[in-house]
Write a structure and sequence with these properties.
The chain is an alpha/beta fold and 505 residues long. The chain is built from 16 helices and 25 strands. Helix 4 packs across helix 10, helix 13 crosses helix 14 and helix 15 packs across helix 16. It is globular and about 75 Å long.
């Protein structure tokens, strides 16, 4: 990627950033990062405050790597080499966003950038919009939990929404590769921590809000306030895509200056779902839109996925993509990794891997599976360690209400005792009469998945929830390779199920 080397003073002026003290030297900036391990000669280092460690602790490492300037919250250290520029600012994270945007040439202004936020469904909606865009002949990029994708390249990301320097660098790379439409997930953390500061979104979409990340946001009000930032920054020529059937959507409609397009099932929805049919191998519906009626068929099962399709369709219409590209793009997407993904080896029962890691997502998933299953519903799930512990019992209650067999297991226990997490989930299971006799606690995730699949009989549905397309499991301070989908395939093969899956399944 080609980036023009720029004087520090010019970057600060263009970003409208004022230092709280004298900057000193004015070096030429040839790169920008907040990771001291990625610093190269001529780089600007953003020393950001962190949750465990302050980035200022790594200034020496950054300078050894070749950093020529630092932006930080603290005053310039007396012992700092005089050849290093130092910019003291009150809001270093916000400044990192603004300065990164300027350094990488404001790539957001050159692209149709769509930001999707909400507790559940972001990954599916961005995949759908990417597919619809391709059906419309656009060159598309995608950024989110599943990594980034453009120009036949796909790579993992460490965060759903990258830190500001990586985010703007990615957009610039996409633009240089002739991408003209980018669908991205915008997490509440990203909004609270200014990772997309300054970005101009052509369309911002809100999907839903339920309990999650309260270890970070503390309560639902602050969680919603973080999401709302995306819409409060929209101008009159930008679009807000909002759920018509949600009070959160109505609140955001009042708070945004952007043009509003709604989706949902009620008569008030401008993009409205009608005649829904949902089976385990796919769904169909009619979309009533301002641009006409569109028949929808999809390999993605379940009513929540039809809601995601309605949201993606509203985004496409706001972008003025041809209406006919919507059903074509939806049908072209055979599935989204780890989202209601079927693991099919000809086994005579259904195995679904899904990312459902909140009580609301698990409830919606299991209630629908309960309705369509012809036999038992078996669920395998856990809860992440060092995260919001308040949702654990509620997830146990949700599983106990809908599943015939419940296998409680480890998710990513991180620094917590896995058994303690299981006990907290089990408290919720015990609130449902008779559920304890239908539940087992198996801390080893592979063993739990194995027991679920081994116990399954014809027409049962096995739901493996919580990790989706994740390829590692975090236990203590170590990450080990672990992919629910590959584990399920291996177990099925060991049991003699080896048939190749059907196309689109």
């Amino acid at each position: 990627m080609t980036v023009q080397a720029t004087r520090l003073s010019a970057l600060l002026a263009a970003s409208k950033v004022e230092s709280l003290s004298a900057v000193g030297v004015d070096p030429v900036i040839r790169g920008a990062t907040l990771d001291s391990r990625c610093v190269q000669p001529g780089y600007l280092f953003f020393a950001m405050p962190g949750f465990r460690v302050n980035g200022e602790a790594f200034v020496s490492d950054a300078i050894r790597g070749g950093a020529c300037a630092v932006i930080a919250e603290s005053p310039r250290p007396a012992q700092l080499d005089s050849s290093i520029g130092w910019v003291q600012v009150a809001e270093p994270r916000r400044v990192a966003g603004l300065v990164s945007r300027e350094y990488f040439g404001r790539p957001d202004e050159k692209l149709a950038l769509v930001g999707v936020t909400g507790t559940n469904g972001k990954t599916t909606v961005t995949h759908l919009l990417e597919s619809i865009g391709r059906a419309a002949g656009r060159r598309c990029g995608r950024i989110g939990t599943a990594g980034y994708s453009f120009d036949n390249r796909q790579r993992p990301l460490s965060r759903t929404t990258p830190e500001a320097p990586e985010f703007y660098r990615l957009l610039a790379e996409m633009y240089e590769s002739s991408v003209d439409l980018v669908a991205m997930e915008v997490s509440s953390h990203a909004l609270a921590l200014s990772r997309v500061e300054g970005a101009r979104f052509s369309v911002a979409a809100f999907l839903n809000l339920s309990r999650d990340h309260l270890d970070f946001h503390h309560d639902l009000q602050r969680y919603f306030a973080a999401k709302a930032k995306l819409f409060e920054s929209l101008g009159e020529d930008q679009w807000a895509v909002l759920p018509a059937d949600s009070q959160y959507g109505r609140t955001l409609a009042e708070r945004t200056a952007g043009r509003v397009l709604t989706f949902g099932r009620s008569a008030e929805a401008q993009v409205r779902l009608l005649d829904e049919r949902c089976l385990l191998d796919g769904s169909a519906a009619i979309l009533e839109t301002p641009s006409g009626t569109l028949p929808i068929r999809t390999f993605q099962p379940g009513p929540k996925n039809l809601e995601n399709i309605a949201a993606a369709a509203a985004c496409a219409l706001a972008l003025k993509l041809p209406p006919e590209s919507i059903p074509a793009g939806v049908l072209a997407l055979s599935g989204v990794p780890g989202r209601m993904e079927r693991i099919d080896r000809g086994q005579g029962f259904t195995v679904l891997v899904d990312y459902a890691h909140t009580a609301d997502a698990l409830d919606n998933l299991l209630q629908w599976v309960r309705q369509v299953a012809r036999a038992r519903v078996i669920v395998v799930f856990g809860c992440g360690g060092d995260r919001d512990s308040g949702k654990r019992a509620e997830m146990g209650r949700v599983a106990a209400r809908s599943a015939d067999l419940i296998l409680l297991t480890s998710d990513n226990p991180r620094g917590e005792d896995p058994q303690r997490i299981l006990e907290q989930i089990a408290e919720g299971v015990r609130t449902v009469d008779g559920a304890s006799s239908r539940s087992r606690m198996i801390a080893d995730r592979e063993q739990a998945i194995s027991e679920a699949i081994s116990d399954a009989r014809r027409d049962d549905v096995v739901v493996i929830a919580g990790k989706g397309s994740e390829t590692t499991q975090v236990i203590g301070d170590k990450q080990r390779p672990f992919d629910d989908r590959e584990v399920a395939r291996r177990i099925l093969s060991d049991l003699g199920w080896t048939e190749e899956p059907r196309a689109g399944a």
